[in-house]
Write a structure and sequence with these properties.
7-stranded mixed β-sheet, flat, disordered C terminus, alpha+beta, disordered N terminus, 822 residues, 45% helix, 21 helices
Length: 822
């Protein structure tokens, strides 16, 4: 492979991560279009300018130990970069791409090694450099998932192991000596891994592994460059360039990035990571390309030495005498000292610590108050008695006291307040343990003047500033007329989103009942995850997506004390501080005050009207829900069939998903107010038969007339499926199945706008061919379980519950007329 081709391939692989990182920065104005993560609906995302500094403050940011979790595992770690920074998601994705790229490079050259040698294992530079790329990829994966943690340091040690193997090939001139040094290198690296795993101090572990790694990462390019540039040995040209790139553009940026963790700038957060992502694949492609030529030259030298000296291959020389590295131990020792300068000297003597951000440091100052009520007429006696004990003077002179004051109320002369300020709670405890307060407030002292001998004591500390927290907190409270039980029945029903303004309907994920997809009136879709439900709290998470703000929310209820209301509802939101989070918080507050609070008050203002409105919203939008669910089940079935083994018939795969997709498609066509029969052509079999209690349809023209005639008596309808069962027939090899389900029908009549309801049992015979988009209906029969009846809302006054009942009037007469809707 020629050098230009190598560089082009490496750049094509490496430029993906920085481009991804850059695409996450809201630095350019404009409008981009993204797809919804659930249904592929395009929605505009408006980018806004951001002011990210080019350089960070040139001071040392101390590493803060935390816990990093990923892939089901958690480890103590130091943050390598801020995940919630403008570049965070791009950097993380970049690490995953580098991980995949290095594995692809390593595997490709392993295949090349096997094709050349036809052996599983042989002392070979190509083999070592292939594994060198693969184990370096583990470093990228660990840094993406667990940051600076023990798994990363173990990955770095394995990375260094194969650097030792490369070095051993160059300073040991026979295979016998190489094998001896390989054993020593493995023993050394195992010792490092053991210390990384066992030493409890994470900072000590970091320094231990990095110092040993830097020794090699600097020593190799120094020795290679000396051979190439000073001695003219072309054998070392490519490794000198490769490891020079590795040192300058991978190792040094990784070291410097640790000095500025938490500082967001183009140089540190983007620039240094850019260099790491680009340089890593280039380094390994150069190494692997060189190793092929090295192995060929090595074998030629061995063959020549074997013929000349009549010795075995293990005893033969592998390099020309002038190509052997001499005294690598001294060079590595010097490089270890130089490496310590970068790891310890720069942070200790070059970069001064960043000044502490006092605003974001927890204030240990303690503020205390004590309130006493003195018997009327004894105020002066109380003051004189207190002065005798010199409590104020003793308190002001106590260790750690900042302020100690004694004051009297202007509005209530019998009330006194002690106001104290201490450096910390420990100083307060020392003051109390000194015994001075208890000596003063004895029964024969000032305590005798205090009403009921009661002192109201309270302690305070300054709250941690909200601007210093990783998450923003916001919320609101609203009082409604409905009872708390009515409110809670609605809010905690995960299938119901009527209390969320702008939500048309909620669809539960068929694979995870704790996930729901909200269809909004603006055409967008929002995913939410149920966290917990208790008697008075309901927690859920709105998952972030394109143009969708992610947050965690808690809804709570309390019995209202406000006259004319029945329940108080609290809404608390917690969101990560990402791009433009201040604007997002202000926008949420504005929406709450303008829209959400009035909407919720109106929603629960009249329970009877709310019940009717809730049903009507579900009915009117039911066909949209069926369309979406049909698409979901169809996609699941297609994916299952695509991944099915070749020896399994396609019609035997994902039978339930295929039939749920069919059922939802059927109800979508029946409920759609456009009354379009054309979509039914792909779900009806060639000789179909539809039977609705006396109405029989067996031609497409008859189905079309029925859809635009009897079915149109309801201006809106909704079908809810229950007891969904699929039975195999004796003809399953031809895709024949029997489907049974119970269906609850809700409809709004066109003639009088009344809400009617019914319940039916469906029996379907279907034919499923692998090449069709849907299974097809051959026979469909409907039997009534509950006949058509008007639904009556009975709203009771006060806190009584609202109920819905069937009204059987004229049910028999209307059965034939409205049966078409089932």
């Amino acid at each position: 492979m020629q050098l230009p081709a190598i560089i082009i391939l490496a750049l094509a692989t490496a430029l993906c991560p920085p481009v991804l990182a850059l695409s996450n920065v809201p630095y350019c104005q404009g409008v981009e279009f993204h797809k919804s993560h659930k249904f592929g609906i395009a929605s505009p995302v408006h980018s806004t300018p951001s002011t990210i500094p080019v350089f960070p403050p040139f001071c040392l940011v101390p590493l803060q130990e935390t816990t990093c979790s990923g892939l089901g595992l958690s480890f103590e770690c130091f943050e390598a970069y801020k995940k919630d920074s403008p570049f965070g998601s791009g950097i993380r994705m970049g690490h995953f791409i580098v991980f995949l790229a290095l594995n692809m490079i390593g595997v490709a050259f392993l295949c090349s090694y096997y094709n050349r040698t036809r052996r599983i294992w042989q002392q070979s530079m190509l083999l070592f450099t292939a594994f060198y790329a693969i184990f370096t990829s583990s470093f990228a994966l660990c840094r993406a998932v667990w940051m600076l943690s023990r798994p990363l340091f173990i990955g770095a040690a394995l990375h260094n192991l194969f650097e030792w193997f490369i070095l051993i090939q160059l300073f040991s001139n026979t295979v016998q000596r190489q094998k001896m040094y390989v054993v020593r290198a493995v023993t050394f690296i195992l010792a490092i891994i053991s210390l990384v795993s066992l030493v409890p101090n994470l900072k000590a572990v970091t320094l231990l592994e990095q110092s040993c790694g830097v020794m090699l990462d600097l020593g190799l390019p120094v020795m290679f460059s000396q051979k190439w540039l000073l001695e003219g040995r072309d054998l070392y040209k490519y490794p000198a360039i490769a490891h020079g790139i590795h040192w300058m553009f991978t190792i040094l940026p990784l070291i410097f990035a640790n000095f500025f963790v938490g500082e967001i700038s183009w140089m540190t957060t983007f620039g240094l990571e850019f260099l790491v992502h680009v340089s890593t694949p280039i380094t390994h492609i150069l190494y692997l390309n060189w190793s092929v030529g090295f192995d060929e030259e090595k074998r030629a030298i061995q063959d020549q030495d074997m013929r000349r000296r009549h010795i075995s291959r293990d005893e033969a020389n592998t390099l020309e005498n002038g190509d052997v590295l001499e005294r690598p131990g001294k060079t590595l020792a010097v490089c270890w000292i130089i490496g310590l300068f970068f790891l310890v000297g720069i942070p200790q003597y070059v970069l001064s610590p960043c000044p502490p951000n006092n605003f974001c440091t927890a204030d240990p100052t303690f503020y205390g108050t004590a309130v006493v009520q003195v018997y009327p007429g004894l105020e002066q006696a109380f003051e004189d008695r207190l002065e005798k004990y010199k409590l104020i003077q003793k308190g002001q002179s106590a260790s750690g006291n900042i302020e100690y004051q004694f004051t009297r109320s202007l509005s209530n002369p019998s009330q006194y307040r002690f106001f104290e300020v201490w450096s910390s709670i420990k100083d307060v405890e020392a003051w109390i343990n000194s015994g001075i307060p208890s000596q003063v407030f004895r029964e024969d002292g000032p305590m005798a003047f205090i009403m009921n001998g009661t002192i109201e004591v309270a302690g305070y500390q300054k709250p941690y500033p909200g601007s210093c927290k990783d998450k923003a907190q916001l919320g609101f409270h609203v009082e409604v007329k409905a009872s708390c039980q009515q409110v809670w029945n609605v809010v905690t029903n995960f299938k119901d989103c009527s209390w969320i303004q702008g939500c048309r309907y909620a669809s539960i994920d068929p694979k995870n009942p704790d996930l729901r997809n909200l269809s909004m009136t603006d055409g967008s879709f929002v995913m939410e995850k149920l966290l917990y439900v208790t008697t008075d709290k309901f927690g859920y998470q709105r998952l972030p997506g394109d143009a969708v703000l992610g947050y965690e929310a808690v809804v709570s209820k309390t019995t209202s004390t406000v006259t004319g209301t029945g329940c108080g509802i609290g809404f608390q939101y917690q969101l990560h501080k990402g791009n433009n989070w201040q604007e997002q918080v202000e926008a949420m507050y504005e929406t709450q005050q303008r829209d959400a609070i009035p909407y919720i008050r109106q929603l629960f203002a009249n329970p009877g009207r709310w019940v009717d409105r809730q049903f009507r919203v579900e009915i009117v939008n039911g066909f949209i829900r069926h369309k979406a669910l049909s698409s979901v089940h169809s996609s699941l079935a297609s994916a299952a069939r695509l991944n099915a083994p070749g020896n399994v018939s396609k019609v035997e795969i994902a039978v339930e998903d295929r039939h749920r997709a069919l059922a939802h498609r059927w109800f979508y066509i029946v409920e759609n107010p456009q009354r379009d029969a054309e979509p039914a052509r792909e779900i009806l079999a060639k000789n179909f038969s539809l039977s609705f209690s006396g109405i029989r349809i067996n031609t497409f023209k008859a189905f079309q007339d029925w859809l635009k005639g009897p079915a149109d008596q309801a201006k809106a309808s909704s079908h809810v499926m229950e007891s969904f069962q699929i039975q195999e027939t004796t003809n399953t090899t031809n895709g024949a199945h029997e489907l049974k389900m119970v269906v609850t029908w809700n409809g709004i009549l066109r003639s009088n706008d009344e809400h009617w309801i019914a319940q039916t049992e469906h029996s379907w015979e279907t034919i499923d061919h692998a090449d069709d988009n849907f299974a097809r209906i051959k026979n469909l029969k409907v039997r009534f379980l509950v006949p058509f009846s008007p639904l009556i809302n009975e709203a009771r006054s006060g806190d009584q519950e609202t109920s819905c009942i069937f009204h059987p009037i004229h049910a028999k007469e209307n059965t034939t007329t409205l049966v078409a809707h089932n």
